[in-house]
Each structure stands twice: as structure tokens, then as C-alpha cells.
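agent: user wants the structure for Glycerophosphodiester phosphodiesterase from Aromatoleum anaerobium. delegating to structure tool.
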Amino acid sequence: MTLSRPWPLAPVLAHRCGGLLAPENTLAGFAAAAKVGCGGVEFDVMLSGSGSPVLIHDETLERTTNGHGRVAGTRDEDLRALDAGRWFDACFAGERVPTLEEAAVRCISLGLSVNLEIKPSTGQDEETARVVARRAGELWAGAAVPPLLSSFSESALEVAAELAAHLPRGLLVERVPPDWLQRCRRVGAAALHAHARYLDRATVIEARGAGLWVATYTVNDPGHAQTLFDWGVDCIITDRPDAVRAFLPQHSAPTGYPAGLHARSC
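agent: tool returned. relaying C-alpha cells verbatim.
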């Protein structure tokens, strides 16, 4: 089967909201990505101890907040009291761990397309997928470009397929396994998301020939990004959306960037 559907998101996505331009998985990251003309973002969603979907990458709080302990063991009110920006730079002090609702509102207002990674805490794959898939479907209902849901967890993708079949899905892998196509078919994935270090041109060609989109992470060198696009990759996820976007001026900037809303910078 030949790929006929165009990739629905921006071709360059800021990794964890803003890449290296802002503290990861924060509202400041969205503004930073939009300010440099990046049309989309990738971010991680996990459940809090109250069962709410929030943006954070690690299962523990220490690296990206001033808190301690497990995200899955921290109630919403305690999570909201944490500082998620000062670790990155003092000028981002006061940034919070955003809720998925806050993220959706901000992305829609900025015209940012979204790759939402379902990031379950250990043992919470299906529960996380149930909450995130349903909520994403509600929050982006009627949106011109709905989010693409990706995950390393195949059981999470299977649940997402049942509850939000209208949202496209991507199978996340690091090294591309020999049975990647069968896995994509099994979970109903429309895209293969692979680490750029382990992705080769032959796999890109095969995936696209099988009717799949191909996204790759985390590509920070503009020359490498151009090579990957030349292979036929649909999307680059990068920590340097400013550098990669500057090297690829043909990619369009987001629409609807509100006047007066600026990214914080140091």
C-alpha cells in the first residue's frame, strides 16, 4: 500500500513542549516553540496520584521539580504547589506542572499541532490510556488537527484505539524491532516513531510503502534533519526547534499566535 494521507502535524515538533528553549513539559515551552515558528509540540502525559492527566516525563519528581517522590503518589493539590521551572533557569521560577486541559487550551490558542505521548507510570498502562484517550478526545473535539497519540506501551495504544479511534496513533520504539510492522498493525498505529540513531533509509521507505507515517526523535543537528527528510521521514522531534526550523524555512509557522503573548526568555 502506498502512503496517500499527508502527515497531519507540523513536520518539526518541539520535544517536551519547547526543547532546550524552556523547562520541559511546561506552558512556557509552548510559548517558546511558537515564538521560534515551530508549528507543533511533543509532550508526555502521566496520571497524578489523584488520577488526573498531567504533563511530566519522569515517574519521579526530583529531576524537573522541587518535589520528591512518585508522580503517581502525589495528589493534585500537592503537585500544583511545586515549582517546575527553576531547575531549568531562575527566570522560569513559578512554572507549574500543567494539566492536560491547560495544555490543550494553550496549544489550540497558539495553533500548535500535538504529538501526545501516553507515558504510564509502572503498572498503569491501561488506566493511563483510558483517562488520556478519553480526555484528549474531549479537549480537542472539533479541532482542525486532533492530537496524535503515541506510546512505548502497546497495551496503552490498544486501549486508546478502543476509546478514541478517531485519534491517530503512533508506536514508539527506540531500536526498530524486526516485527515493527506487525506490531503497528496489531495496535492500529498509523505511524512508526523511532530513535534517529537506529533508523535507516530502508526502514523509512518500507514503512511509507506500507502506508505508515514515520516520525523520529531526538534530532538536534539541522544537517541530520535534512538527511532524514530526504529519506522520506514525515516528522522530526527536536530539542532545537529554533535551529532545525531555521534550516528548513519551507516548513510553515503556526497560525493564530496571539498578539501580546510572548515566550519567557533569559
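agent: one observation worth passing along. Residues 51 and 140 are 20 Å apart (CA to CA).
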